[in-house]
Amino acid sequence: MAAVTPGLVCSHHHLYSELARGMPAPPKVATSFQEILEQVWWRLDAALDLEMLEWSAKLGALEALEAGTTAIIDHNETPNAIEGSLSVIADACQEVGVRVVTGYGVTDRHGADGARRGLEENKRFLDVGGRCLVGVHAAFTCSDESLQGAAALADEYNVGVHIHVAEGPGDADAPERLAGLTNDRWLLSHCVYLPTDHDLKGTILHNPRSNLNNGVGYADPARFSNPVALGTDGIGANMIESFRLAYVMQRSVDVTVGPDPAWSWLENGWDLVPEARDDRVTWSYDPMDPWHIAFTAGIHPVEVVVDGEVVYADGAPTRVDAQEIRAKAGEQAARLHARL
Ligand SMILES: [Zn+2]
User: Fold this and answer.
1) Could you tell me how many helices (H) and strands (E) the chain has, helices first?
2) How far is the CA of 214 from the centre of ligand 1 (A)?
3) CATH number for domain 4-338, candidates 3.10.450.50, 3.40.50.1820, 3.40.50.720, 3.20.20.140
4) Coil, strand, or helix at residue 182?
5) Distance in angstroms (rounded) separating the CA atoms of residues 320 and 146
6) With 60 as the cut, is the pLDDT of residue 113 above it?
7) Ligand 1 centre and the CA of 216: distance in Å?
């Protein structure tokens, strides 16, 4: 017996961060979300080159397939390897057979020129027909000009903006900074410190494992009137695990709730990448019902079909060599870690 579902969607991922595993500990223990950014992620992203990014993305795409995830909404930040980065990610996912929507996270962290180059990479990728949402890191690392420029570029190409919003207390003024810029195509990631009553439009992306890992608190996404979808924020692409965590985190503040709301957040990914509805994942467990899955560990795909092609079967991808990807990613991780 096996159950079949559409391909799952990871609505917030950072494929550049797959090589972070095993990285050396930061020089001092980070004591806040801001320090975690400064001592871990902003050191890592600055050390990445395009070759590292390529194998990081292939590893992330491989692990997505291994979890039955056929579509990834990616948010890239490689400040010393901006130009061409979105094509590297798209090509890596194409090779493995996973759908990807990517964008470059515009930020003024490296000056106005860095922000301009980030915006230009989004435009370049859109111009070559790339599947793109204009990326913005977060309001708190962007000038008003950068925020307005990203919103205008997205409007020009009729796509949304993919941005971190109020993930930590340092971005609590995001609703004011983004006032008048958002629309229903925007994706707002985290929103832990976003007031329940706010004027931002778009889908809120809930990342339960990442929020726990950063100690930022519970976003309680059920309080918002916006649609909610589930992401991982770069820690793999196992959406069954994300659903299970989203359910128990909601349960931790409301013991009357069942798994259906968290499951509906997972299903909302299909509104963001509709093609994934036509993909087919055959699972090790039957039935794939939220009331079963919430209480069943170790569910995994047996076969994954993307756009009519079997891309994963018998425990292995069909287009690529999983062992080769893991070996090459390991070599690139060693290069990366040596730079930190
Ligand atoms: Zn993120």
Assistant:
1) 13, 13
2) 11
3) 3.20.20.140
4) coil
5) 39
6) yes
7) 13
Is 211 a residue whose pLDDT tops 90?
A: yes
- In DSSP notation, 189-218 reads EE-TTS-SS----SEEEE-HHHHHHHT---
In the reported structure, the alpha carbon of residue 310 is separated from the centroid of ligand 1 by a whole-number distance in angstroms of: 30
C-alpha 137 to ligand 1 mean position (Å): 8
pLDDT for residue 27: 87
Q: How far is ligand 1, taken at its centre, from the CA of residue 325, in Å?
A: 24
Q: Say if CB 13 and CB 74 are below 8 A apart.
A: yes
Residue 1, pLDDT > 60, answer: no
Neighbours of ion ligand 1 (CB under 5 A): 233
CB 40 within 8 A of CB 7: no
DSSP 95-118: HHT-EEEB-B-B-STTHHHHHHHH
Burial class (CB in 10 A: 0-12, 13-18, 19+), 176: exposed
Q: Rounded to the nearest whole angstrom, what is the distance from the C-alpha of residue 326 to the centroid of ligand 1? A: 23
Ligand 1 centroid – CA 183 distance (Å): 20
What's the pTM value of the predicted model, to 2 decimals? 0.98
Q: Measured between alpha carbons, how far is 240 from 310 in angstroms, rounded to an integer? A: 21
How far apart are the CA of 133 and the centre of ligand 1, in A?
Answer: 14
71 CA to centre of ligand 1 in angstroms: 16
Find the 311 Cα to ligand 1 centroid distance in Å: 27
Instruction: Name the helix (H) or strand (E) containing 155.
Output: helix 144-157
